[in-house]
Amino acid sequence: MTAPLVVFFVLAALAILGALSLIWQKHPIHSALSLIVVMVALAGLYLLMGAEFVAAVQIIVYSGAIMVLFVLVIMLLNAGIEEHTSISKLAGVPGLLLVIALAGFIAATIARSSETVQAAMQTGAISSTKGISNMVFRDFVYPFELTSFLILVAIMGALVLAQREKS
Amino acid sequence: MSTFLSSNAELIISLVKIALLLFIVLTVNAYLTWFERKVVAHMQSRWGPHRVGPHGLLQPLADGVKFLFKEDPTPAGADKFVYYLAPLLALALALTSIAIIPFGPDPIHLFGHDIYLGIAPPDLNIGILALFAITALGVYGIALAGWSSNSKYPLLGGLRSSAQMISYELSLTMSVVGVLLIAGSFNLKDIIANQTSTKWGIFGWNIFPQLLGFICFFIAAIAETNRVPFDLPEAESELVAGFHTEYASFKFAMFFIAEYTSMITVSCLCTIMFFGGWLSPFPASWTFTHYLPSAILLPFGLWVIWDGIRYETIFGRIILPAVGTAITALGAVFILFPDVNTFIQGPFWLLSKIFIFLFIYVWMRGTLPRFRYDQLMAFGWKLLLPASIVNVIITSFVILAKMQWGPK
User: Fold this and answer.
1) Count of CB atoms within 10 A of residue B341's CB?
2) Which of A50, A154, B91, B305 is buried most, with the most CB atoms less than 10 Å from its CB?
3) What is the residue extent of each domain of chain B?
């Protein structure tokens, strides 16, 4: 086994264990911490693929900004230990089927697009900062701007809710 | 054995470098506390530590021993796992961020390998982003410490610090964008190389086009490291000691070391981003400035010897002249070996600038009062963030104008 492969399996195991622990943990803070582990492990996987910029942004945005907000909210609400209900059989059987279907879809997509991903990695279109900024700010600039509009709408919604509380 | 060594040379070099840097950073940390106490004491007309060792120089050692042997109670009802995790996280992240800093331009040739000063490879293209990623995670150490202690003052301190760090992280990141636009790279080495100037070295530094950016960066960085005047998370008049109230013994020491390490990292960043890193402020033709390290070390070493001979205690009369001799010898080595002297120039300038920033940190602690919490938030969001965004816009327009109409 080569060194990158070992690192890959360690990171992948960490991500999966983190995801399982996210569901199994009883306390919200522990769940949030597990989610951070998943995100950092994913960032490590991106780094392994040579996508340095994506890895750094993954940590800054997801593990840094978004999860800090989660943790902050859990701390502010002082959320206690969750009560786990036993899963109803009705939800369990279709849920399992859905999980299998979803896993199949993802596997099929990965198998089909692996060549294009490899090609994109070779040209540096997804790995280098320059390639990413060319894609976001030149090729896909209108969809990108639409996303920012979406975020603006969300901010305005939050403002409206906060203002209503005051008056 | 030798085949193992040669086949894993990179790995072994990295491990040795990590061990060495860890030792250096922790020692510097220890003496930074001594330096801070001494400087603040003299600003307040006191002596500062002077009992343990000559000039109190062994005080950090005594503090370390005290930290190790103190009782370490865990508060009742604390979340054990998170309570133990938090100081570890704070310290590990603070020490990791130092690994990204390059400490010198040229590699040392040793055993047929080019060994660069600094742990990260010199072609790390996301240098500054990696640093920000580590800083972004740094919030958890403090927030989780406050939460897991199961006590009201730490919880308030932890909440305050999370809010403060999230707010100031924005300005911190935005204020650097100007520098990144000028350099066109995230790589710390490229950013420094971009600041070279043909005439006076000092006029090539980013501080001149980016004065606004530097002011925003420095203020945000101080807030990010939770130092005076932004040390609200640990405001002792309101919150006892903030997030680390319930931490004692070595776990407290870990938070302490983390804080001082991030002070060093921020000083490194200020130097690299705005003050030319390892570049000399003088024109390149002034080769006599190469003797500056010796010109500082030799008189300082001689002064330490002179001071040591007349010292009150016998221990001081032995140890101070020995230290002085070592410093003088170092200065003499730089004069006698021109190769060593040229190699030392980059690290010398980098370390002197870092030292100046560390002094400014301590100076501010001795001078400025603490912000009120609402003032802090208003300042961060209503003044600092708009100012740094204005800096980004102006810089981009100037660069665009230069590209359009400037000399090709």
Assistant:
1) 17
2) B91
3) 2-285+337-405
Tell me if residue B312 falls in helix, strand or coil: coil
Contact indicator for B97, B90 with CB cutoff of 8 Å:
no
Is residue A56 within 8 angstroms of chain B, CB to CB? yes
- Give CA–CA dist B131/A61, Å, rounded: 13
Within 8 A of A53 by CB-CB distance, chain B residues are 126, 129
Q: How far is CA B281 from CA A42, A65, B284, B340, in A?
A: 43, 38, 9, 20
Q: Which residues pair with B109 in a beta bridge?
A: B114
Bridge partners, A86 (sequence order):
none
Q: What is the residue whose two structure tokens read 């901010």?
A: A155
Tell me the average confidence (pLDDT) per consecutive run of 10 residues in chain B, 408 residues long. 69 84 89 89 86 82 86 79 87 88 78 74 79 85 83 81 82 88 83 79 78 88 81 68 77 87 89 84 77 83 84 81 86 82 83 90 85 83 90 89 78
**B115 three-class SS:** strand
Residue ranges in chain A modelled with pLDDT below 50: none
DSSP string covering A7-60, please?
A: HHHHHHHHHHHHHHHHHH-SSHHHHHHHHHHHHHHHHHHHHHTT-HHHHHHIII
Distance from the A72 Cα atom to the nearest Cα atom in chain B, whole angstroms: 7
Å between B163 CA and nearest CA of chain A: 8
B48: left (phi over 0), alpha (psi -120 to 50) or beta: left
| pLDDT at A102 (0 to 100) | 93
Please report, for chain A, the start and end positions of each structural domain, with discontinuous segments joined by +: 1-80, 126-167
Classify domain A1-80 by CATH number. 1.20.120.1200
Q: Cβ contacts of residue A124 below 8 Å, gap of 6+?
A: A130, A131
pLDDT of res. B210: 83
